[in-house]
Amino acid sequence: MAAVAWTLVAASPGEADVALAGAAIYEARCAVCHQPGGRGQAGVYPPIAGTLGHFMAVESGRRYLADVVVFGLAGAISVGGTAYVGQMQVAPPLTDQEAADVLNHVLTTFNAASLPADARPLEASDIAARRAVVRAPTAVAKARRAVLRELEGLGLSR
């Protein structure tokens, strides 16, 4: 239901431009690794399709997603039972609005089925708040593990 609401909002004047901006940023900056459609490359680049919506169920998950796009991610993670070890760098950095746009694009386009009903889009102000607390990419990976434990405790593990 939330995905439908986001889609309708994105179709309103002005918001359609934001949706297009997120898609363009994804194509230019993210698709080279995560591939068109967000399917990734097994063992090399993790998929981001069908794997991120559940993070929006908790505030720590929203913060984690923003941190990934702002600070990158380094270390070992597991997605869908496949291990990935590497470093995602964000260079050159995205603006707060660009980061919000691309995250909302990935969430509504590739993860709509797993978005919680009460999920709300990320805003530039959400990104700015995260940027104010600098994190190393390894700290972002550590935060991911904590968010996954929190989701598991709520019965939302994937």
Q: What percent of residues are in strands?
A: 5-15%
CATH class: Mainly Alpha
Q: What letter string, H or E per element, gives the SSE order?
A: HHHEEHHH
- What would the principal axes of the Cα set say about the shape? globular
For the record, the count of structural domains works out to: 1
Helix proportion:
40-55%
What is the radius of gyration?
Answer: 14 Å
| Total count of strands | 2
Question: What is the straight-line distance between the termini?
Answer: 20 Å
CATH superfamily: Cytochrome c-like domain
CATH architecture identity? Orthogonal Bundle
CATH topology: Cytochrome Bc1 Complex, Chain D, domain 2
Q: How many H/I helical runs? A: 6
Which structural class is indicated by helix and strand composition? mainly alpha
Offer a concise description of the structure.
The protein has about 160 residues and is mainly α. The protein is about 50% helix and about 10% strand. The chain has one domain: Cytochrome c-like domain (Cytochrome Bc1 Complex, Chain D, domain 2, Orthogonal Bundle), CATH 1.10.760.10.
Structural commentary:
This protein has helices at residues 2-10, 15-34, 59-71, 96-110, 124-131, 137-153, and strands spanning 73-79, 82-88. It has 158 residues and is mainly alpha-helical. The protein is built from six helices and two strands, in the order αααββααα. Strands 1-2 form a two-stranded antiparallel sheet. The two termini are 20 Å apart. Helix 2 crosses helix 4 (96-110), helix 3 crosses helix 5 (124-131) and helix 4 crosses helix 5. Residues 1-13 have low confidence and may be disordered. The radius of gyration is 14 Å and the shape is globular. It has a single domain, classed as Cytochrome Bc1 Complex, Chain D, domain 2 (Orthogonal Bundle). A hairpin with a 2-residue loop joins strand 1 and strand 2 (82-88).
